[in-house]
Amino acid sequence: MKIRQQVQELFPTPLWILDILPADAAPFNATLRAEIEKIISPRPHVPSGSNWQTRHDLHTRPAFADLAKLIEIASKSVAQYLQLERFPMMITGCWANVNPPGSYHPTHNHPNNFLSGVYYVDAPGSGTDLVFQDPRPISIMPWSGKPSRMTANASVAQPQPGRMVMFPSWLRHHVPSNESNSERISIAFNLMFTNYAETLAMPRWKASAGGA
Q1: Sequence ranges of the domains in the chain
Q2: Average pLDDT, the chain
Q3: Which of 27, 31, 181, 183 is the most buried (most CB within 10 A)?
Q4: What predicted TM-score, i.e. pTM, was given to this entire model?
Q5: 88-99 burial, b for 16+ CB within 10 Å, e for fewer?
Q6: Which of the following CATH numbers is that of domain 16-39+52-135+152-195: 1.20.140.10, 2.60.120.620, 3.30.450.20, 1.10.510.10?
Q7: DSSP secondary structure letter of residue 59
Q8: Of all residues in the chain, what percent carry a pLDDT higher than 70?
Q9: 185-206: pLDDT as tens digits
Q10: DSSP 8-class letter at 57
């Protein structure tokens, strides 16, 4: 008996990665790093294992206008990919993370937003991965010794200076301990539909005649 098998992959979780050319990223990141240093000067004491974050209004500051523009361009590209370009989005928060050696970010997501992302200003080699957790409930997953994207319960996005990673805000993720001897500096942000209540929150079904 002959059979024919096909595989269909259901419910993909997209991840968008945007890289600035190194020649452009270097001066851009130097400017961002200098502005972040101004915000945190004088340097506060950060306990071992902890990280430091700025206020979440960087997108409103003139010094970060070019970054805000980059986020806007990237979000429009994502909206076009999802065929949602007729629904404009806005940045709801943007903040810098300074992670000294030994610091990490525990597993979390970004509630009440549609897209989230991170831009890497400085990313030392060891312990800088952005680790995404599989959102699907798994009750049984034997260890085969050969994990793949079909069987693994986590996936990694590798940071590098000048790289922006965007993902659905509901996707849980964490950053492992910075095992290098230098700081990890990134700028995170969230985006939400500007007129969500007016354009997207209404029911998608039509009432039948006489329905209550």
Answers
A1: 16-39+52-135+152-195
A2: 89
A3: 183
A4: 0.89
A5: ebebbbbbbbbb
A6: 2.60.120.620
A7: G
A8: 95
A9: 999 999 999 988 788 777 777 7
A10: B
